[in-house]
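Quick one: structure tokens for this chain, please?
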Amino acid sequence: MATNTNSNDNIQQVRQDCAQKLTSISGQVPQLSAFVGLDGFVDEILHVVDKRENVDSFQRIPSITKFAERIAAAAGRSTNFELVRKLTKLGGNGPIMANALAAFGIKVTYLGALGWPNMDPVFNEFTKRAEVHTMADPGHTDALEFDDGKLLCGKLTPLNEVNWANIQERFGKEKFAQNFNSANLVGFVNWTMLPYMSEIWEHMQAELCPHLQGPRRFLFVDLCDPEKRSRNDITKALDLILSFNRYFDVILGLNEKEAFEVAAVLNLAPQPHTKEGVTLLAGEIQKCLPVQTVVVHPVAYAVACSAGVTDLVDGPFCEKPFITTGAGDHFNAGFCLGKLLGLSNAMSLVTGVSTSGFYVRSAKSPTVQDLAGLMTNWPSK
């Protein structure tokens, strides 16, 4: 397996070349289309109070480690935690990724759990950017954010309504097939939290895929933290993802935790949580599950492997992010943008880390011009 790691000088040149390329071909972006689904959440971004100074001011618990220590100290005694809402926003892997794709200027059609029969107002801005359809009520996430990560506490019962019968009844099989058959990028994400996603994929492969015509297009899949699902369920999902590769150029997106969980299900040899270990793991996953591209995005860098060749790119790591919930979905949108524009894996990784880097600093989805600007003026921290 070949590995393309980049020296600082080389990656600076890759960023500059990528910025120039994006600027020169940005006119192609509005001609691209994406069909994405199928989840939906209302996200409350929360901080946990450590010490309250007055009614307007408090210090938050800075890390998951400190929070865990506080919880452990309460065993056998009980305690309480004050949660302060930072903002309420649209959530779910699908809406966040689709919203980011739409911010680039891609024509996006979204189908998901955004409110039934009426859409939740939190998605109103999303409808101004994309063609948005709903088929079920959204889940709800309490996202406790810390400097070293986040804890996502989800209420998922409404997502049981996301199934093939409701897709046909509330959206329409013909309309679904039309989008599935024509979009340059098809994306189905958050498999873990959608209990009927594998069944939906089975119907798609049996009823829609055999009728596909024309050139191969991209299919992006994100499992979304499959730890709670059984080994048999994960194995079945991976088999279905590989089966899609007969019809699409499949991109399997994984964060670092998900990559190690998938590797365990595939019985791959353990690797250390280092750049070298993650790079090797991405190649081994792609070898064992030969989709077109396997991409793994830890917090500070990202790795992509296609046909046994692996690229690694550092991101614009931010010690004090304004927001982290949705960073991975923005990475996925940026990486897919690069692939849609025909960029190399290395450049697509740059578009991915730049998209997430812009978002965590601003809580806003970047435009293509924003990406080119960030690549040209790369932040030092």
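The radius of gyration is 20 Å.
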